[in-house]
Amino acid sequence: MVSPTKDPYPVLVSSPLAPTADAPPASLDQFLAGVGPRAFRFAEAGLRHREDALDAVQDSLIRMLDYREKPAAEWPPLFWSILRRRVIDLQRRRRFRLPFWRDNVDSDGEPVDWADEGPGPADVHAGREQYDVLVQALRALPPRQREAFTLRVLQDLDGATTARAMGCSEGAVKTHLARARDALRTLMENPT
Predict the structure, then answer these.
(1) What is the domain partition of the chain in residue ranges?
(2) Which of 36, 52, 99, 149 has its CA 20 to 30 A from that of 85?
(3) CB atoms closer than 10 angstroms to residue 126
(4) pLDDT for the residue numbered 8
(5) How many CB atoms lie under 10 A from the CB of residue 123?
(6) Residue 45: which of 34, 35, 56 has the closest Cα?
(7) pLDDT at residue number 173
(8) Nearest-5° angle of CA 42, CA 133, CA 52?
(9) Is residue 97 within 8 Å of residue 91, measured between CB atoms?
(10) 48: left (phi > 0), else alpha (psi -120 to 50), else beta?
């Protein structure tokens, strides 16, 4: 089992294959090496469970291999769309788990809150307190607002790429993003 305080993609973070912001990836392998850590943070914010997030990212990375022949410009929206759908699938499956499912309850039969399992990977880079406030605020957002904020702001995708990944118009992305920023501002100023 991976320690919760270590980055699950230590090789990918320092990989010489990781693309720079100036140059597009030369190969799918280079693209996948650069997107792994950001994809993990996106999946973990949506799933609230480290292992589920790792599984979602791994599944998405594997599915991208089928699109090796696509032009490099299409890889980012395609990947984020695949990952987004995988996260939503896992969220839906989790809703239908029975209460006695062994992963959802502790030894006393009480529901387990996966968000309190331990520190997340971004804790290495940011102060624990600020990170926790941000994560709690993101989790309080409606799913579409959380996706728009995460893809546009945290992943730094442009409006068109975000719209294609989310399967909506650029105007809808702007609306979701504006609402997410307003809600986050309120939630972060008044954390509970």
Answers:
(1) 9-103, 118-192
(2) 99
(3) 12
(4) 45
(5) 17
(6) 56
(7) 93
(8) 30
(9) no
(10) left
Give the C-alpha separation, 88 to 167, whole Å: 13
Does 18 score more than 70 pLDDT?
no
Categorize the per-residue pLDDT at 96 as very low, low, confident or very high, splitting at 50, 70 and 90. low
Distance CA 87, CA 64 (A): 15
Q: Are 11 and 40 in contact (CB under 8 A)?
A: no
Q: Can you name the CATH fold of 118-192?
A: Arc Repressor Mutant, subunit A (1.10.10)
What pLDDT, on the 0 to 100 scale, is given for residue 72?
86
Q: pTM for the full model?
A: 0.47
CB burial class (10 A; 0-12, 13-18, 19+) of residue 181?
Answer: middle
Distance CA 34, CA 54 (A): 15
Least confidently predicted of 88-97, 155-164, 165-174, 180-189: 88-97
Contact call for residues 42 and 150 (beta carbons, < 8 A): yes
Residues in CB range of 5: below 8 A, 6 or more apart: 118, 119, 123, 124
Q: What is the average per-residue pLDDT within 96-104?
A: 47
Maximum Cα interatomic distance, the chain, rounded to a whole number of Å: 53
The answer to whether 72 and 31 are in contact (CB under 8 A) is yes
Residue with tokens 């979602």: 56
